[in-house]
Amino acid sequence: MAVCSCTSTDLFNTGTPGCQPLPGVIKRIILYPTTDSSGNINRIDLTAIPNNADILALINNDLAMKRLFPVAKSMVNVTNERGDTITEEFPDGSVFKIRQGVKTFHGEFVKQGSTFANELDKVECVDMSAYLVDGNGSLIGDKSVAGFLTPIKIKNGTWDAKTVDQTDTTIAKVTLDFQWADSVRDGDIGFLKDSDFAADVNWLVYNGLVALYGSAPSVNAVAGFTMAITNLYGSVTGQPATGLVMADFDVNELSPTPATAPLSSVTESSTLPGTYAFVWTAPQTIGDKMELSIAATTFGFDDANLKSQTWIVI
Description:
The chain has 3 helices and 26 strands. By secondary structure, the chain is mainly beta. It is elongated.
């Protein structure tokens, strides 16, 4: 945090160049845990600005506390404003500044509902920071530590996500409100322009992970199995996860002899979207405990819940 220092050598400059880039209208928020599980600060090193492959790897990191979380792209009605300065006035008319006002954030995610709001509610359980993205693709953060663009610290306990149902004249949405940490001053805020990143980087289009869930196999045999795969969006029965192919999956035997179980084919049902028939290259053994997961090379999914749906070959 920048502090006020009134020494004789602490000078300032009030000139400005004829032209300077400034952040535009905020369109997105990219969440980033303030630190990883080892206590290391998550931030961008300006000597190694991430390229597209680096960013995708961060979004899909197996360790959630090192993962970037791009939040839904359809954010509107964004405000990011600091409140009035807290002052004290004396009888002689003197007014003294006590502290800066609180800076608050508000945004709305259109065509989103309770499932998305529930995912956002989980942010309250993590010490979280965030980058902002403007309409030009610039990434806005905290520049107070030289050599880094650090995500801006969110004040704990202020995170509030809630649903707004559709009416005859308004669309369904989720609203998000929170306060930035008191330690963050306006002068701490900086940004990387779109042109500071490689040409294949576009912060406006990255998507966060979607959690997948698997049903108990409807077919379970030594030759293969059939499983319905869903996400939590849509109705309470889940939304089918469609369009996956054999290269998107891994199957492993967990016991009694842990090993990979190669597949010879994966076919999505033409009548039951999201239901896949899996055939192993070699038959498995009755009694083997199996686990289905998403391949490491397939991005965009959190398969922790899918992997928890283990089964015994019969």
